[in-house]
Design goal:
The complex is a heterodimer of chains A (about 350) and B (about 325). Chain A is mainly α. Chain A contains 14 helices and four strands. In chain A, a hairpin with a 2-residue loop joins strand 2 and strand 3 (about 170). With about 325 residues, chain B is mainly α. In chain B, the strands form three sheets. A two-stranded antiparallel ribbon of chain B has the order 1-2. Classes of the chains: A mainly alpha (about 350), B mainly alpha (about 325).
Chain lengths: ~350, ~325
């Protein structure tokens, strides 16, 4: 009886367990924070957290696509900074209307991402290397574009977008984040492209045999990531009223952490966008707790984020193994064992 | 390993590039050729380039060992900052002597390398993830250690690590040279080099063939960690202060670039420590050249990113296959 129960439990994929763990963790942290700081238990606080999570969340959504496809993107923070500067230049210096400037910035981000994806695919280079170079390229271009590192947008009434618009208490960045989250989840679940992304992450060779256009799908995944990072840059520049060449430093780590905590293992193939939203929220709640506690310095947020990422990677691996043992299967065939191999060559 | 002919060190290409860039500078950079003995000490722009390259050489050699196992260490920049912070804090706070402080700094690097080694070889995490976590945690830890401030220190022995001379040669160059020669001797006179290449080529086959995979990988990460710490102490001594926020930022790209320029395969299985060292000097010379040409310093980031991409594409198997195929058809 117990064995049968364990067997049926093992049919639940490891990523679902991880997502469940993430939701439980989010609730636990939120409730315990609420017991210390009563003001945590309000819609207003939740809206604030969503607002502060918007830029990181957008980067993490794009990152989910790339990680699902079996790659990694270390350049999201730098692309965010570059996009925030281009937004500021387009709105402030060129005086472009917003409906023209924002799609322009997003197109630049998508083009950059597509170029990265093309390089990863055609030259078979590891994606971490191409995006590490891309990170310095984007950061360097951003630093070259302005001598003082910042372009403020005082001629444009962007502050009205940042705080002026509220729908059921949610700010515009939070709304953009939630809308992108929903759209990403739909694309991943219901489109040919989304299924292709998961298929090539699960196994490129098998995906090719299934007739999936691997090149197009991989380039698309990186393009989505570039697009999301650029959108995050737009949101950032609107939020602070300036383009900033130093924005988003180390954001790639937080984005990866959000994705992994949300139940998408770094080996690719399985995972969910909704989980990414949960993972990012966990990081932001912890950050808010650390900041409002006041006795801990802000560096602890970085350390806790890194530690959580590590914890969840370990959790996913052990859950994957345990469910396989329950199922009476062989642990050495466990897909999570793929992580045991050093740098994947096909990423 | 599968093709023995390809394991031969290909240190010639970076040397040719280095010679070409040096020649360019000799011809078009004013005063580059100035080299002389001043108070029995070698001085000149060329010496400065080699001296400035010393920390990067030390890091790149360790990185080459890690990349040989088909891994990568992204945490070297943070380890560099941590070692500098440890030394500076111990010298200024509890007033430790220079030797124990340096030992503690190197010990910090050893510890970080051990953690990376355990995460990668013991637990089996992807090297990128394990070292990315360390990158964030160690940088945060270094900032906590100094309260985010820059800690300056004055200790003649530690400062001598950057500005002193042994005979006519600057101490950093001697240290980097000793580090390189020692590791080359260790790796090439023992079976260690063969083991590293075997692991990088195929970890499962290496394990089945009896290679102590976990211990050899641990060795690679520990060497990278200690090397980064050594470089961190030299860098801190150079500016007479430890800056936990900016020290060693982006040095992992430089180190990876140096390793790749030196003919080490990113997929593992083939490495050259001397090549990595030559690559590191080449990068520093590139930096100097860009600045000497009056290009803004920020542009070096763009230039280096471009170089790393071009070199990687040129070295990739796909590109070679396409090139060879194209030549064959003609």
């Amino acid at each position: 009886m117990t064995l049968r129960l364990l067997r049926s439990l093992s049919l639940v994929p490891a990523s679902a367990w991880s997502l469940l763990a993430a939701v439980t963790l989010l609730l636990a942290i939120y409730l315990s924070a609420g017991s210390v700081f009563p003001w945590f238990m309000s819609w207003r606080t939740a809206a604030t957290i969503l607002d502060s999570a918007a830029t990181l969340g957008l980067c993490a959504i794009g990152m989910t696509f790339v990680i699902l496809a079996g790659g990694i993107d270390l350049s999201v923070g730098a692309v965010l900074a570059l996009a925030s500067l281009v937004t500021a230049i387009a709105l402030q210096r060129w005086g472009l209307p917003a409906w023209l400037a924002i799609p322009l910035v997003c197109a630049i981000g998508a083009t950059y991402g597509a170029a990265v994806g093309g390089l990863v695919h055609s030259a078979r280079l590891p994606s971490f290397l191409v995006t590490l170079a891309g990170m310095f390229l984007a950061r360097g271009v951003a630093l070259l574009m302005t001598s003082e590192g910042r372009i403020s947008m005082n001629r444009v009434p962007v502050h009205l977008w940042g705080s002026g618009v509220r729908v059921v208490g949610l700010t515009l960045p939070a709304l953009v984040f939630l809308a992108t989250l929903g759209m990403g989840a739909l694309v991943l679940r219901w489109t040919v492209f989304g299924r292709g992304v998961r298929a090539i992450g699960g196994g490129e060779h098998a995906a090719r045999l299934l007739g999936i256009r691997v090149a197009r799908t991989r380039v698309g995944a990186f393009a989505v990531c570039g697009l999301c990072a650029a959108l995050a840059g737009v949101v950032h520049s609107v939020g602070v009223g300036a383009g900033d060449a130093k924005a988003g430093e180390l954001m790639e780590l937080d984005a990866i952490a959000g994705v992994v905590i949300g139940g998408t293992p770094l080996s690719g193939g399985v995972g969910s966008i909704v989980g990414t939203g949960v993972g990012v929220s966990i990081l932001k709640v912890i950050e808010l707790v650390i900041v409002s506690d006041g006795s801990l310095s802000a560096q602890w947020a970085k350390i806790v984020g890194g530690g959580l990422l590590l914890l969840f990677v370990l959790l996913q691996r052990s859950v994957g193994r345990i469910t396989k043992v329950w199922a009476g299967g062989r642990t050495d065939l466990d897909p999570h064992r793929r992580e045991a191999q050093p740098v994947s060559r096909a990423s | 390993m599968s093709r023995p002919g390809r394991t031969a060190p290909r240190v010639w290409w970076p040397l040719i590039a280095l010679a070409a860039l040096t020649g360019f500078n000799l011809l078009w950079t004013d005063g580059f050729a100035r080299l002389g003995l001043d108070d029995g000490v070698l001085r000149g722009p060329v010496v400065d380039v080699v001296r400035n390259a010393a920390p990067l050489v030390i890091i790149a050699v360790g990185m080459a060992l890690v990349i040989a196992t088909a891994g990568v260490d992204l945490s070297v920049g943070s380890t560099l900052a941590m070692a500098g912070a440890v030394v500076a804090v111990l010298l200024t706070g509890p007033r430790w002597g220079p030797v124990p402080a340096i030992a503690a700094g190197l010990g910090a690097g050893l510890g970080i390398g051990l953690v990376a080694g355990v995460l990668v070889s013991g637990i089996g995490l992807q090297p990128i993830v394990a070292t990315l976590v360390l990158l964030a945690c160690v940088r945060g830890g270094a900032q906590l250690l100094t309260d985010g401030r820059t800690v300056s220190f004055q200790d003649s022995m530690v400062l001598a690590l950057a500005s002193g001379h042994i005979g006519a040669i600057p101490v950093p160059v001697v240290v980097a040279g000793a580090w390189l020669v020692g590791l080359v001797a260790l790796v090439r006179t023992t079976a260690l080099g063969l083991f590293l290449e075997a692991i990088g080529d195929n970890p499962v086959a290496a394990r089945l063939a009896g290679v102590p995979v976990a211990r050899v990988m641990m060795f690679a990460y520990v060497v990278a960690g200690v090397g980064a710490a050594l470089a961190g102490i030299i860098v801190a001594a150079d500016i007479r202060a430890a800056d936990p926020t900016t020290a060693g930022k982006a040095i992992e790209l430089d180190a990876i670039l140096a390793v790749v320029l030196g003919g080490t395969a990113l997929a593992g299985g083939r490495f050259s420590l001397c090549g990595a060292a030559v690559g590191a000097v080449l990068i520093k010379l590139l930096d100097t050249t860009v600045v000497a040409r009056g290009v803004p310093a920020q542009a070096t980031l763009v230039v280096k990113a471009g170089v790393v991409l071009v070199v990687c594409v040129l070295l990739s198997d796909r590109f070679r296959a396409a090139l060879l195929g194209g030549l064959g058809r003609r």
